[in-house]
């Protein structure tokens, strides 16, 4: 069975960062670059950021994907059941 055309993105706050009021899963196209997730989170929380603050993103709390990597590829390698991807976001690097 071919993979679904969309990927479910679950945002996971790490540390002392703004959180969504409700746990929400975003659905994006498998062909979208990871940059879409980065820009979306930054836009949603822009009013909570101080000047010069930027989010750090990670998968499996271990690495930050390249902004041009497709969500489909990331989901195949690091997702759950090839349908969803948990993305951590923080104001400080969160991996070692």
TrEMBL record:
Q: Which UniProt keywords apply?
A: Autophagy, Isopeptide bond, Ubl conjugation pathway
Gene Ontology CC terms: Atg12-Atg5-Atg16 complex; autophagosome membrane; phagophore assembly site membrane
- GO terms (BP aspect): autophagosome assembly; autophagosome maturation; autophagy of mitochondrion; glycophagy; piecemeal microautophagy of the nucleus
Q: Which domain of life is it from?
A: Eukaryota
MF-aspect GO terms = Atg8-family ligase activity
* Gene3D superfamilies per UniProt: Phosphatidylinositol 3-kinase Catalytic Subunit, Chain A, domain 1
Per the record, the similarity remark reads: Belongs to the ATG12 family.
Task: Fill in the subunit field for this protein.
Answer: Forms a conjugate with ATG5.
- What this protein is called in its record is Ubiquitin-like protein ATG12
Species in which this protein is naturally found: Anaeramoeba flamelloides
Q: What is the lineage of its organism?
A: Eukaryota, Metamonada, Anaeramoebidae, Anaeramoeba
């Amino acid at each position: 069975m071919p993979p679904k055309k969309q990927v479910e993105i679950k945002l996971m706050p790490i540390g002392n960062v703004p959180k969504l009021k409700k746990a929400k899963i975003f659905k994006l196209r498998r062909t979208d670059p990871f940059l879409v997730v980065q820009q979306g989170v930054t836009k949603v929380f822009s009013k909570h950021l101080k000047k010069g603050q930027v989010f750090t993103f990670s998968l499996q709390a271990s690495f930050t994907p390249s902004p041009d990597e497709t969500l489909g590829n990331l989901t195949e390698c690091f997702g759950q059941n090839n349908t969803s991807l948990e993305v951590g976001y923080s104001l400080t690097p969160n991996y070692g």
